[in-house]
Design goal:
homodimer, 373 residues, alpha/beta, 2 domains, 8-stranded mixed sheet, 12 strands
Chain lengths: 373, 373
Amino acid sequence: MSDDPRFGLARSVTLPGPLRLDGGALLSPIDLAYETYGTLNHDASNAILICHALTGDQHVASDHPVTGKQGWWTRMIGPGKPIDPERHFVICANVLGSCLGSSGPASVNPATGKPWGMTFPVITIRDMVRAQAMLLDHLGVARLLAVVGGSMGGMQALSWAATFPERTASAIVIASAARHSAQNIAFHEVGRQAIMADPKWRGGDYYADGDPPVAGLAVARMAAHITYLSEAGLTAKFGRKLQGRNVKTFGFDADFQVESYLRHQGISFVERFDANSYLYITRALDYFDLAEEHGGALANAFKASPTRFCLVSFDTDWLYPTAESRGIVHALNAAGAAASFVELSSPFGHDAFLLESPELSRVVDGFLRAGAR
Amino acid sequence: MSDDPRFGLARSVTLPGPLRLDGGALLSPIDLAYETYGTLNHDASNAILICHALTGDQHVASDHPVTGKQGWWTRMIGPGKPIDPERHFVICANVLGSCLGSSGPASVNPATGKPWGMTFPVITIRDMVRAQAMLLDHLGVARLLAVVGGSMGGMQALSWAATFPERTASAIVIASAARHSAQNIAFHEVGRQAIMADPKWRGGDYYADGDPPVAGLAVARMAAHITYLSEAGLTAKFGRKLQGRNVKTFGFDADFQVESYLRHQGISFVERFDANSYLYITRALDYFDLAEEHGGALANAFKASPTRFCLVSFDTDWLYPTAESRGIVHALNAAGAAASFVELSSPFGHDAFLLESPELSRVVDGFLRAGAR
């Protein structure tokens, strides 16, 4: 480990900026909370940026400060894992707009001394990526060996390759998409409406009294959570099994295990996440359309790209189905970019990328080692 | 048309009961709001019962009293249509638990003189069917030429055949299932939690001041509505098109048409539907498991059944996918029942059964005419 205070767990930095956002606003300063694992080598050529998903955070391989649970991707990152701090310098930052230490609606607006709330500017996936690039400047990383992410993390990886091609040697894009579909937007809109319908939301101005819109946020999480799981996975895990009882109660308790499970997902989520951040990040996802940013043709995003791409989808993922990954691969092929693609089989739907998957580990490991040769 | 006051549009009847419910309670009296179209023939052999879906009602082919819109299945029922009042005596009743005139949580409990609210007993699909059977007794219909329904209406049709086989000459089951899956239950639970999280719900006791939990009910409707449409249908209809603007606003207005559409679905729904009824009917759906009612084997529900069955599914319906209908057909085959089955192609998902579908009309018409021979 280095003595450099920039490196290690539970780091944060305030960058002066300003960062010009896609929406036109200038954001300054920019707080970024992040962690690094491993050691940056002498020519700074072993850096891998991990990009997290909607409700993820920088604790990719360290215990979460609120829940105490282990990092969300210890299956992928750690000693002997495909991304190994013994060999790689791993960086993971809380995305702009989130609530684990990076600038977002729960942060204090220095101009007013109060939380931004809904006056925080709307951000995009590309804004998140630009903030990450500023962090890499701070860390002395000119070029990434790889940028890796699943779900929204995959969108950031794509945006990295499109926005900073010379800084992106390779990109691993898992269970992701190059744009949000109408159905994706629809589910997010349900979640946003659930939050904004909660009287405790109060136009986003709820930070002063510690009484946030947890009921609305829990409903939003429950709706989203269904999209992370496959129908077959839900059936296998829960089916119509009852929860701690032998007969139906003919009431409105959580009779079924799947109800109890969903309620738990909602309730536990609100302990670790901010409702306004949920609004902002879902908005960023819905706005994401990489083709639109490049004249309507996705291939334009990757013209003459020096980046090597690895795309992975899961056959039961109906949030970002395989067809989305295939569309990206077609665009990469049309652009003449180096791309490999595999659809993996899993019963677990979208969530598969976070779960034990020897195949996924093999694919990521093989791709990274091939690039290192 | 008959002069009999039992027959015609906008009818209702109060039946003394009591009706013993699956949950054990005795319900008495039972109000049923219904409509009839056409004339019951001399031997009462031309009666067709139409069963409506979750948020449907008895106005199958007459204008809705609240919205003013035409009946919800005028494509199927009317002069020259497969179900034709010139030939058939058509009955459609508001289901038990609903809010268009039949007994439900918004009805007055005669014991207290106040609305039942959440003291209304939890009901099942079979309870709805038993109430319909009491209505048929009242109307002088011993046996149905056919019972026909889509979605929850199809479940009632199945339950009719299983509960009253001798009264059910044929059953047409469209876009339906013999049990609610874990995913089905999960989506309903999100809706129920959205309603119950609304402070205006007040434990269901909100009828006195005309201030119902419309925000929660709208969110519930929005979440459910997504499941009625296919991903491809949403993409074709809305894609990522913006609503009345050329550029994104970088705000939280309904930038996308699909957001605006969903919000409209939510807002317009609350004008015509009661939140507690939504809780009760979704519960009835989640409890539905025809196999469970018959010792765990679906085929037992149809043993030696005299009923002819017609099953129809739609290829893009992911709420009650074709596999559910196929499972029913297998059970019918195992039981030796007469069953025909067709999967129709439609881009519209579950909602296809309500939309213009010449193939569906042909199937229903052909099946009914074959039975009349």
